[in-house]
Amino acid sequence: MIQALKDSKQYDNTIIVFTSDNGGLLRDAANNGPLRDGKQSVYEGGLKVPTAMVWKDVIAAGSTSDYKALSMDLYPTLVEAAGLRTTHPIEGKSFLLLLKGEEDMQDTDRPLFFSRREGGTRYGGLTIQAVQLNNWKLLQNDPFAPQELYNLEDDPLEENNLIKEKPEKYKELNALLMKHLQEAGKVPWQAEK
Predict the structure, then answer these.
(1) Around Cβ 12, how many Cβ atoms within 10 Å?
(2) So what's the pLDDT on residue 117?
(3) Residue 118: per-residue pLDDT
(4) Residue 45: helix, strand or coil by DSSP?
(5) 94, 111 Cβ separation under 8 angstroms
């Protein structure tokens, strides 16, 4: 692909993004490293994926960042990079300044939401979901299991559930998650039959 862009003289004016929408599927022998679980879960192995971007003379070769972007952040980033503006509200946030090396973005007050709703007989339309705020993450990886609370800075492999030890943090994150699920529930998720 890169050679084709170079051959067609489009490489200098192209942003290449290589990423995934979820971690690898374990039953297909995917390797998500030490992260817990994989695709179809809201543990880090199902959510956290690396992203590589190339933009000649803009993104410094070999540069890295620990910034946590959502896939929905790609759209506003690419729109801004193209010198355009969106004409409607969107939930994603551009991280163009980070790509240009002009700002070290942190987003410490931005909650990140993850939810998965499935039809069929396994979940019957129920959800699995998670919210992450800073290094804290509240999740429910099975609609029939209790919620779990992790401090990802101290416990990146999600092994020590702190929900009983940190009731105030649980309440804070649960309130954010419930509000998000109420808003998301307004959007039809499956066609009526």
Answers:
(1) 10
(2) 82
(3) 75
(4) helix
(5) no
Residue 137 CA neighbour count, 13 Å, CB half: 26
Protein fold of 112-184: Arylsulfatase, C-terminal domain (3.30.1120)
Question: For residue 137, what are the β-bridge partners?
Answer: 132, 150
* DSSP-assigned letter for residue 169: H
Q: Whole-angstrom distance between the N-terminal and C-terminal Cα of the chain?
A: 42
pTM of the predicted model, to two decimals?
Answer: 0.90
Summary count for the chain: helices (H), strands (E)? 6, 6
pLDDT digits (tens, 9 = 90+) for 27-58: 999 999 999 999 999 999 999 999 999 999 99
**Domain residue limits, the chain:** 2-99, 112-184
CA distance 41 to 106: 25
Q: Tokens 């000649």, residue?
A: 56
Burial of 91 (0-12, 13-18, 19+ CB in 10 A): exposed
Q: Please report the DSSP string for 104-168 in residue order.
A: ----TT--EEEEEE--HHHHTT-EEEEEEETTEEEEESSTTS--EEEETTT-TT-----TTT-HH
In angstroms, the CA 25 to CA 39 distance is 5
Q: Which amino acid is at 2?
A: I
Q: Is the pLDDT of residue 154 over 80?
A: yes
